Amino acid sequence: MAIAVDDHVQNLKMLLFVRQSWSLAQDLDIPDLSPVPVTGNSRIPESSSRDAWDLMWKREWDRAWAWYDIRSERKAPLTQGEMQSFARPGQDLNPLMPPFWTVEYGEEGIDWDAFDAWDRQTTPIPPINVEFDHVSALVSAWHGGLTNVIVLPYRGFFAHRLSSSHLVVSAETRRSPELYDRALSFCT
Predict the structure, then answer these.
(1) How far apart are CA 39 and CA 25, in angstroms?
(2) Which domain of life is it from (predicted)?
(3) Alpha-carbon distance 148 to 160, whole Å?
(4) Are 5 and 149 in contact (CB under 8 A)?
(5) Are 172 and 157 a contacting pair, CB within 8 Å?
């Protein structure tokens, strides 16, 4: 039995930081962040309209989540041609590397010091290892197909079965024995 826990999802955290900093995609039902990032000097670039940035952000948000499906489905090693096509921004999703905002759209408008400070706040050091307290719930979830838990800096209880193999939870959910067991029950 193996269930990977990813609480350092840089590509998703960068998207959440950009959304918070630039007030994008406010019509999407995305939980509040915890902690809320101090965005520093991050500002929406004037190189495109707010509506255009909003659409670009939503596209990348969708691509970031679609990547988990691509990665899960990929069984065979990449061919040389696939490796070359995945090396260019805007191309097909690479099953080995998730899409990154800065690869597609650059670093304009992002205060890296502010992002790094928030990233450090949201990344537990040392990593939290609560799995031994949840062996029964994890075994049941694994039998239900769970292989990956993605941890995001959302406030309060959050659990979403992304796919047959992936569960997304808030950091607060993962730290709470009751909430984590409840989230794992989504996979049985």
Answers:
(1) 17
(2) Bacteria
(3) 12
(4) yes
(5) yes
**How sure is the predictor about 37, in pLDDT bands with cuts at 50, 70 and 90?**
very high
How distant, in Å, are the alpha carbons of 8, 99, 130, 131 from that of 177? 20, 32, 8, 10
Q: Give the chain's domain count.
A: 1
Give the integer Cα–Cα distance in Å for 165 and 63.
18
Report, as an integer, the average pLDDT of 36-56: 97
pLDDT of residue 74 exceeding 50: no
CA nearest to 78, candidates 95, 59, 56: 95
Neighbours of 94 (CB within 10 A): 19
Burial class (CB in 10 A: 0-12, 13-18, 19+), 34: middle
